[in-house]
């Protein structure tokens, strides 16, 4: 049915390699359950494989098999809450298989578009998705900043101060970025792969800064994109700055511990920018 990409699942966590080995069987079971016919090559990201399929009536769709953890477990719920409004439509879900049947979209993403257009589209999607209360099942914010000798104490302290403030309880996609917005047929652009969190809408800004970071003209470019995102998404710039500082420091710690050097440098730059803004 499918061939698992070599090395897929590495680094996902305990049991991931064993799960990856079962993907051909899971795909076969999902296709049998939903009467699907494979219709293209397998694609994959960090934690899921996607198989283009056709349904029994001939309509195109995709079968997504996801490694289920605390960040991905409520993706189906988030998609149901979006109900196709600015997001890929969930056609069916099998919790036992970790399988989602989704409408098929074009592989062309906002990452392929000029940044000004991409920011405008993201802003519209943020406005459309704001105001949805997060159900109790959705993960709540938890402070994860730990000490690290390479990070200045003033930045660690500033991040911890932000984390003590009251957090909102709206449905927020904490991994919204340009590659996760694809071209669609019924709407021009649709969000995929939401990682839902109960939070302030401003919590979602930083992935839109560290992605396509190489296109920024130093701190001036960072400020310009940040303000453009806040304006397009009708976000509170002060709150967005504070949560960007927090997430930059938290991810900086994680990157240093995991040896993700390139992103660590970017997080350090964003943290220092946010602290001085």
From TrEMBL:
It comes from the Bacteria. Signal peptide: none annotated. Keywords: Kinase, Transferase. One of its GO terms (biological process) is secondary metabolic process. InterPro entries: Kinase-like_dom_sf, NH2Glyco/OHUrea_AB-resist_kin. GO terms for molecular function: kinase activity; phosphotransferase activity, alcohol group as acceptor. The keyword Ribonucleoprotein does not apply. This is Streptomycin 6-kinase. It comes from Lentzea xinjiangensis.
